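Sample intake sheet
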Amino acid sequence: MTISRRNLFKAGMAAGAALSIPSVLRAQTAPADARTVRMALGGLQIFDPVLTTSTDTGSHALAIYDTLFGIDSKFAPQPQMVEKWNISDDKKTYTFQLRDGLGWHDGTSVTAADCVASIRRWAQVTPGGQLLMERASNISKRDDKTFAVALKEPLGVLLDLLAFQGPFIMREKDANRPATEQVTANIGSGPFKFNQALAKPGASFTYDRNEKYVPRSEPADGFAGGKIVKVDRVIWDNIADPQTALAALQAGEIDFVWTAPADLFAVIESDPNLALQALDKTGEDMFVRINCLQKPFDNVKARQALLHLVDQESMLRAAFGESKYVNTVTSMFGNETPVSNDENTGWFKKGGDPEKAKELFKEAGYAGEKVVILQATDSALFSNASELLAATLRKIGVNAELAPSDWGGLVARRKNKGSIVDGGWSLFISSDAEATTGQVVSAVTLPMNGEQAWYGWPQNDEYEALRAKWADLETLEERKALAREMQQIWWDYVPQVLAGQYVAPSARRKTLTGFIEMPALIAMWNMKKG
């Protein structure tokens, strides 16, 4: 194999980083034994999956909580905590019975009352839950193991709603907290227990195998089936610097890096002890989310300006360099979902159209207002793309300013609906798993229902009237037609701007195998350390 000067330079950088890891970090990252896995997963700060859609929080919840239904590798809902269910003849009442062996980490039993409270809390903040509550006349406990959902009218997608970004089931006393107040107990019924005594906020969190967990008998399949834990402990390390994380991986001090730094792929591939593995084969759609409440982007012309300004190929190069893992994307439903389409995509132009963007900002009456871009510095791809976005805006005369923080800080600040003066924001870069973008009734970024919408809070009643029809359509052809109507409005309103599609491989030591390959979240079960 011929090693280029560029790759040799990268290898030297990585080796140098390995030598420069502080001894304290080395001590923290040394695995205790062969059944302990150390994973660099991100800066986990919020533990309550109802309070945020952050993938860090979702992966934490997937470890310690269980779900009523899970999605399999074909994205179909499968029973998880539920043993059996039936539907009334008029299709308005679903009755669910929990399976045996479900217990909380505090030693008490899971009951139907826990499930009812968890559904109600989740339903306050998620698109799928909001749809369920619009259709439900009652959600009630029948006995300790049985609960029912009574509907005012049939809802054929109910099981999908409970599986796709559905509720993580919490104890009733936790789920009775307001949806705006964080649950901090971290006590679930899932395959891992959160070790509170070993928690080191900002540094690491520890998850121990739940010895009393009773997995389903079916083989593991996506996030469904038997959740069999094959290690004793998982330690979630927060190593913000990607190069430091890779150096620790090379040294055997950690076993896994969730998002491998793109400019070091060649280093990873040339290391006989390491492997790249894409856990999400469908990839992510990167986007610039827009605050539709505050100037200048409360004006549709300013939002449309961004549509013409963002050059996807440049954004992808900034995030990944020259990579085989990237592609442009123009449909709000991604490139490869069943309802992807080309409606109203005439704005897409190779290289973007800065002059058109400048013209639209002028039409919007832009008067030099500060545009604050939230920048997650511990995500190399989002951070680099944010810097390019800021530079591109400045080139056309926009007063753009970066607000750097770690991802946890971004997640906290993006909740602020106030002005820039009051700590608000204008733009931030994130991504959606493409597999979820076609799930219109449950995808969190797709609603445009104002105060109830995802961060940015877009509002368009005509679009929402179309989205409300989705749950009652029976054929794919009907959904394709509706998707085109929705996309026409979406790109006229512009709640967010696409910045490209990518597959982000993880890096692991070859001794760590058995990963569940699914979008967005990391499943800690099934993996084993050789």
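Comment: Residues 1-32 have pLDDT under 50 and may be disordered. The longest strand covers residues 136-143.
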